[in-house]
Amino acid sequence: MKFGVGQSVQRKEDDPLLRGGGRYVADHQPAGALHAVVLRSPHAHARFTLDAAKVRAMPGVRLVLTGEDTADLGPLPMQAGIDGVDIWSPPHAVLTKDEVRHVGDAVAFVVADTLEQARDAADAFEVSWQPLPHAVGAMTALEQGAPQVWAKAPGNLAFETTLGEKDATDAAFRVAAKTVSLKIVNQRLVTNYLDTRGAIAEYEAARDRVTLTLGSQGSHAVRDTLAADVLRIDPQKLHVVTPDVGGGFGTKLFTYREYALVILAAQRLRRPVRWIADRTEHFLGDAQGRDNVTTAKLALDDKGRFLALDIDLVADMGAYLSAYAPYIPYLGAGMSPGVYDIPACFVRVRGVYTHTVPVDAYRGAGRPEAAYVIERLVDAAAHALDIAPDALRRRNFIKPKAMPYATATGKVYDSGDFAAHMARAQELADWDGFKKRATAAKRKGLIRGIGLSTYIEACGTMGPDTATITLDGDGGVTALMGSQSSGQGHATSYAQIIADRLGIVPDRVRVVQGDTDRIATGTGTGGSSSIPCGGASLASASEKLADSLKALAATVLEAGMADLELADGAVRVVGTDRVVSLAELAKRPDATPDKLMAADAFAPQAPTYPNGTHVAEVEIDPATGATRIVNYVVVDDFGETINPQLLAGQVHGGAVQGIGQALMEQTVYDADSGQLLTASLMDYALPKACDMPSFAFETRNVPCLNNPLGVKGAGEAGAIGSCPAVINAIVDALWRTCRIGHIDMPATPDRIWAAIAEHYRRERM
User: Fold this and answer.
1) pLDDT tens digits for range 387-396
2) N or C: lower Cβ tally within 10 Å for the chain?
3) Residue range(s) occupied by CATH 3.90.1170.50 in the chain
4) How many other β-carbons are positioned within 10 Å of the β-carbon of residue 649?
5) Which band of pLDDT confidence, cut at 50, 70 and 90, is reported for residue 1?
6) In the CATH scheme, what is the code of domain 461-602?
7) Would you say residue 205 has pLDDT above 70?
8) Which residues is 288 bridged to in the sheet?
């Protein structure tokens, strides 16, 4: 079908967005709205007393809230722990009382007539601070005598758990012909989306009900958590609306303090209350990502086959346990073996409290960290054995005939052909011609490197999610979806799924998301689940509606349902000119609402496992350490493709985020003061268009057996394969010239230059 599944249909969303017709949370300005500002801690750890009397008397100030005023509110909850592990969750109060535990911790909330008045009032608070010792960095926090974040967590240990079989792993290491070890830092990141978080609360006194407009990744998830755990009210008293969202990447999935604060303020003042974060506030108040230190060991036999994997993972949690924080490193640990046939594996995972902003899911949520560890470790093994990195991978890949394959950490891969997509990526990258290009670069005083990563991830499990579709009176279709687009193109891809089954063009499909009054249920968008879960629900609902419409049309056309087809916005008798339009059907007296509506909810029983190969080729100037990516190739297995153009956009965007982490992004806290040194875009480097290569992208799909659409999920894959590919390419260049076997991210020019300079210094000694 011209506009159906598998076609590169142009995005329905783009025209209004490009013409300035988008409606983001900051565009919502109800009449009479007041403006709010959060007072945040300038200290990493301190006790404090606060006097708000002067602020309450300032011009334009309508309300001041402190920890005392919000004591009746529940704390922000930890929403996902680890099965079988008892984890104590510190009280994450909406406003802190007496003691702060990271720079940016919220201590007061001011509402005024104007934003300027609210800011002036926040600056006028009289706060007496008593700074306390602090711990920055997970390894520092674990040291003997380190300052304690919470008295109930001795040694700053938030939790500890293991996966796999220690005895089998230890036994394999004892008989190994070769062992390789690598210590890897996966640095902390700040999520940077186009629009910062914001929230606007409007209170309807007659119904004792609040409408909360905010930028999120799922209105229902925010509503239910706020109602049950923080506000402690009937969720029907809270109407949550999410308009256009300019990126989420996991971080907008969570419930934050400001959402409860604007609701409480609107209830007390009987006026709409707006809070919109500025960029620095976003750095100080939103959950951050990654921040792992991992020691990984690989055991091999005398033929270069992998015997066992041993991993010790330390994950920085920050000062509080954010929504999914403990589960993220555990989720990643389960993917530690990657695409390799490794008989034995043991992973130790520790979460650590520090005096920093809490850490939570960021694009890929644990899987990029796991892929980075195993892919760097495999390259290190290739160097140690003097085997080509692609040859070592081929020797140890899980074979297609072994599917379904159970890993040593308990994951069951349903499908995949890892050697095939690596071979195709190498072909596209002209892997065999690299030596000639490296020689040419050397003549110009530059060094070239080529590297690859072969990744796999587990995703597509955020369900069930109900999809409800209705035939409208004009012959179009309205789809109510519990997922939430933040730029992925849901309105287009969902419309294509409906178009395939109902025979209408995507422009005749209206997709509604982000409204808890209109949509009964929704798990939101995360874990690359929108198409695997929401799309599967929608496909089934569309098929149900198609059958219902055929039944209605059978009476009109005097034909059996088996003789009917839906096409061109109508139902027709196959092979004839007898036809009835969908608009006509919708107006018939017997077309009762139940016959014009269908719903379904797909409940995934197992994850999907996207996989693929990234190949990066880099050129380094040894005089400056500057790195340029000269070629980048991706070949992925996503099972099935709904829209190739949207898919390519997802992969490009994810790869850019991964390349940004590999080359430049890093959240830096000062160890002495605990201050966040990278608290704005003046200090935190983001990749620009000029930093990126032109991507070559293909799919080599093997249909997923765990999903009715055969899809595997694609939203996070680009960010998973890119970091190890780029660092492997850089280390390849450094290994060829200087025998430098590792460099941590971000591989900045000064870090690369220093590594090269140290090599030559040692040579001169």
Assistant:
1) 999 999 999 9
2) C
3) 25-132+192-285
4) 18
5) low
6) 3.30.365.10
7) yes
8) 359
Find out whether 251 and 188 touch, Cβ atoms under 8 Å.
no
C-alpha to C-alpha distance for 353 and 344, rounded to whole angstroms: 30
Phi–psi pair at 559, nearest 5 degrees: -145, 160
CA distances from 533 to 195, 528, 529, 706, 762 (A): 26, 9, 5, 11, 56
- What is the token pair recorded at 92? 């994450």
As a whole number of angstroms, the longest Cα–Cα distance in the chain is 95
* Domain 25-132+192-285: CATH superfamily, name plus number: Aldehyde oxidase/xanthine dehydrogenase, a/b hammerhead (3.90.1170.50)
Tell me how far apart the alpha carbons of residues 96 and 41 are, in angstroms, rounded to a whole number.
10
Quickly list DSSP for 245-258: -S--TTGGGS--HH
pLDDT digits (tens, 9 = 90+) for 279-301: 999 999 999 999 999 999 999 99
- Tell me the whole-structure pTM to 2 decimals: 0.96
Tens-digit pLDDT profile for residues 435-493: 999 999 999 999 999 999 999 999 999 888 889 999 999 999 999 999 999 999 999 99
d(CA 308, CA 171): 9
Backbone torsions φ then ψ of 122, nearest 5 degrees: -60, -35
CB-CB contact of 372 with 336 (8 Å): no
